[in-house]
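We modelled the chain as a single entity of 1008 amino acids. Its sequence is:
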Amino acid sequence: MTRTKRNYLYAASAMAVAVSLACAGGAAAQVSTSTLRGTIYEGSAVETGGTVVATEVATGYATRGRIAADGGYVLAGLRPGTYRVVVTSADGQSAEDTVVVQLGQVATLDLDVAAPIVTGSTGEGATSLGDVVVTGRRIFEVRTSEVATNVTQQQINDLPQISRNFLNFAALAPGVVVQEGDTERTISAGGQPSIAINVFIDGQNQKATIIDGGVAGQDDSRGNPFPQAAVQEFRVLTQNFKAEYEQASSAIISSVSRSGTNELSGDFFVQWQDGDWIAQNEFAQRRNEPKARLDRLQYGGSIGGPIIEDRLHYFLTYERKEETRDRSVFLNRTEYTPLFADEIGTFTAPFEQDLLFGKLSWQINDTQRLELSGTYRSEFDIRDFGNGPTSADRAVSVNGDTRSLVLKHQYYGNGFLNEASVDYFRYTYNPRAANFDQTGARFVSYRDNSTTAPGFQFNYNTIDATIFTAGGGANNQDITQESLSFKNDITFNEIELMGRHTVKAGFRYSMQSYFVSKEFNRNPFYTYDVDGRPEVIGSSAIPTMVTLALPVEPTDAENNTIGLYIQDDWQISDQLELNLGIRWDYEDNAVNNDYTTPDVIRRFVAGLAAHPSYVSTVDLSEYISTNGRDAFTGAFQPRIGFSYDVFNDEQTVLFGGAGRYYDRIGFNFAFSERFAPFNRTKTIYFSPSGGAYGGQTSTVAWNPIYATRDGLDSLLAGTVGTGEVFLVRNDAEMPFTDQFNLGVRQKFGEIQTALTFSYAKTENEFGWYRLNVNSANSVVVPLPSIIDPTTSQQFPFRNAFYSDHNREREYQAIYLTVDLPYNTDRGYGFNVAYTYAEATQNGSRDQGLSNFDFDYASIADTPTFNSPGTDRHRLIMSGTVDLPWDFRLSSLITLASGKPFTAFNPGNGGKPLWFEFYPEKHSFILPNAWAYRQVDLRLTREFEIPGGDAVELTFDVINLFNYANYSSFNQTFRTSNTGLAPLNPTFGQPTAQFLPTRSFQVGLRYRW
């Protein structure tokens, strides 16, 4: 550890201690727990003195608190669940209630010791204990400034879905979009891409620190991040989340896992989807393609119970997912079929995933609790072949592996709660060519390079079509993020100063390591003339060229992160509460801060700057790192919120807030600076006799030895390869979003509604722009013209980019939610989330970590346009209703007005009209309102069997009406961009379709 790092660590520890000493009613934010608070009365007078005990019904764990002089009490650090709350006053009077507390809530429960004892009412939040079912009434959280949506276990279990990915139901929150693709599922919010979210499971930060996706393991994966059977519930925060939350600028998803209870219980499940139960997409039908097979089998089980009743419990779950796809390999040019007959046909592409989770929960005594949990995830996916003229030998195995451990300790002292944790997290993304030991090959048809010269004029770059691609794949990757993190939070809940204060402060220190190995184009890739023309090389068995990249050493990097925060939830009165917080985050190696620019890059930059045609667009000295870069220390994030109970009856509450939220830059962005200059691709051109040929000044006469790796290595040793230069700005700051919201909550009986007005402004997003262009984006410095003074040769770089960190976004939205939780007494429940949004941005149109822009010279030159991933209108409706004969029907309806798309060739040589057009809309409930329509249903029937066990049968239908929801469109506005050419009659017509098409699935669950 360097002296600088050590000083920051010491400063972090000192600040945490100082905050704790300085702070020695309201309630603080909670990543994996909840808070219960209220006032104790005796008739109309407040009760002074006494105790409050909340006992979790399922486990017997008891949490104790004191009644303050003003009658108030606060019980922090509660696991979400059903609690029996018993109040005993100083003179021995008592009151009791049974309530359900949800994750992250600050729930209010006032009790009167002079009133009759209440023991719970409805069937929601039922907890089974042997032959006794204890029920509790759900407490709505209305006095909060956060914009949050809780998703219950009932919703996770009952709402229709195919994949058993609990994150699918994040879409129940306004402003959140979950989009299913063929190879991955993305979650985005607030007009920002998926990299801007973060997920916490049992308080553990699951942020993807290297690659895209926002959540580790979501990018490029068909799998699930966590076993659904292990999820108790989760909470989606889309606005004004408090200072405890980190590394997200759009939304936070916080989940808590299940624990064992005093009752031994478990289940087994199996779900099956046959390929014949999945409708073919519209475009495959038009092409008369045979229906591709996709069979999906999911099975697993869970078990939990007591080791020592009321003290020590365990929980275990395992889930497996198997998908079998058939991929068809065929030629578009069928006249060549006899040449590749052995490699054409139908081949299997399997996906397999294993998920395992276990937990031990121990209430050591009335003041201490300890929890240890671990997760294992492993998957592989064979893909990237077929669906055209690509051989099964070219397949890629996309492998993923996740392992985590979390150890948490809670200590309840007099007037405070201390929560300490240590966690380990490791995620590996490891796509590999399935046959890397086989060289790759493409068979192409060349066309005549001249329409005027007699005969066939050959040029290596004049390829008419790729007929077939065969052999092993070109690339391997091995990317691992690993972290060991320490966290401590302390909450003081008996502070009274002009009202009640709950003050929470904490720190997090994480030691992170990144390993990145990329073998791009490391497998020789030969090109063959499929026609064997004598004007080319005279044979289809002799290659015309071969490409291969030089190896690059893997990168090992360390990054230490520190997070500090303090949050004061201040109940000024029974009606008004302020939430005041501030957070500071620091990373010592977020953007290659330990990197020193190599001498060859320095010489190249100096040569570029000295070129007479170079146009200065940036100060190149700000991109040269001499002894590392100073880490960004300005990530201070003030956050303020308020709530006002208008009539002091928790029926009508005004709320609002403002805050700054810093995100981070994934390491894959800055990694290009280390990797790309030395990932140099070499190309050798073969000819009958060598020398100048086919438009190349230097070719090599073919020798069969060049088909071997040793022979090829000797040939390539004398060839100059080319890489790419990426320059990161030395003082690059982290992206941040300033959020503002104002809203009102209104209860109508048991129905909770909320109307929220939201605004967000994002700054410091990044993109890659070319260094050798002028302000008109024209190349003015051909890079081969820059000569290295050391070697007297041209620099081995074909492209040069600099990082521009001036991309901005704006997001304005109106959220409307209506919530009536399902319970068995009522027999139904529903949720509605409507979002009206306007999202704009500038900069690159790309939305991940590799944001390139070849259309403009800098972000300042780009226009402001509609953000590509945001629907103007989005409506999510879900619900569950009990039917006769013990059937239960659940539905999930998704409606959206459509995402914008671009018009190319607007005319007169103009730039494209970026994301100015919207797809055609259709009717559903409202006329001509929706471009995206999906209705999903699940029918459930439960059968009780002797001994108290139960068997549950489920039938899912996804996209019931088989609506074709289009994902891309013809974007050619005019037939040419010269003058005002004729309009393209097919502009705006769909060209691809979102998943899913109509699908059916059956399931069985045995519960005991």
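As a brief sanity check on the tokenised model: Helices lie at 3-22, 153-158, 282-286, 599-610, 667-675, 709-716. The chain has six helices and 56 strands.
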